Amino acid sequence: MSLASAIRTGDLAELPSRRDEDWRWTDLRGLIRQLPAPSAPLASGALAVGPFDALASRRELIANGQGPAILQIEGEQVLALRIVSQGEGAHAAAIRIQVAPGAKLTLLESYEGEGAYLAQTSLTFTISSGAEVERIVLADEAEDAVTVSEAQVELAPGARFGQAVLAGGARRQRLETRLKHPGGHAEVRMDGAYLLAGKRHCDLTTEVTHGAVDGTTSELIKGVVRDQSRGVFQGRIVVAEGADRTDARMGHHALILDDRAEVDAKPELLIFADDVSCAHGNTVGALDEEALFYMRQRGIPEAEARALLIEAFVGEVVDRITHEGAQDVARAWLAAKLGG
């Protein structure tokens, strides 16, 4: 069951529901009572410039589900992939990204939209031996949208994959990444941040499965919720039998700024091997009142002091982005969210 299959068949029973353990906090079947008509084609010439366009050596567009199905990556590329949705319809897109041996890809992926659309994007990454991929995702979508992004990542030994997902939520927004880790000194970094206000909902779901020896994974997720918004984090790291000498660490930390806001978190470690170094942590709380008092005593207005503390809290995720230009875009997005 998936949103894509529901859009394709028109069958509401294909929608995931709270009966599915991985979807219990992002119930689509209980939310969607009628599937809208297919989205109309979207003229690319009418679109404004994307948030990463100025940084890219190559640009690709998925507009209301229409665009390239396969992207071949060789050499060194900075690719801006825009996923744009507009209108009140439903659409789905599937993209396969194949990274050649020794290639280096910086993927600047943005989700943009206007209207109460229903959209799913499915991405499949095949990353060859010795290749490096850094994926920066900026999901800044319409308040009334229901949207799902699902990424399947398969690494070869010796490859590197880094990810930073920055999400502003929607009526329902889910950004899911599932990665098969081959060990063999392959390295994985999977980070994310959600900043939610109003009644927006965001679900960051990740799963990393270590299948062989000598693999590393580092994961850091930060979240901030206010008003009546809801943040969800589900992170699972699986160390299969025989995947010895795995080093895997995961942390999720969130701030709740209003009584009616909510955070649901479920970090998991499933370990079936010996000789591993694995840890996970989860904290949910409020702003540090002592730090806030200290800043106000030094003449900083309360609103500005709160913004500075939140920026420092979430900024740890942004600091881990290695592409300088993308890091600047992320900081600008963060400042705009806090300013609002």
UniProtKB/TrEMBL annotation:
Domain of life where this protein originates: Bacteria
Domain SUF system FeS cluster assembly SufBD core, chain residue ranges per copy: 88-313
Entries under Pfam families matching the protein: SUFBD_core
Gene Ontology BP terms: iron-sulfur cluster assembly
Name of this protein: Fe-S cluster assembly protein SufD
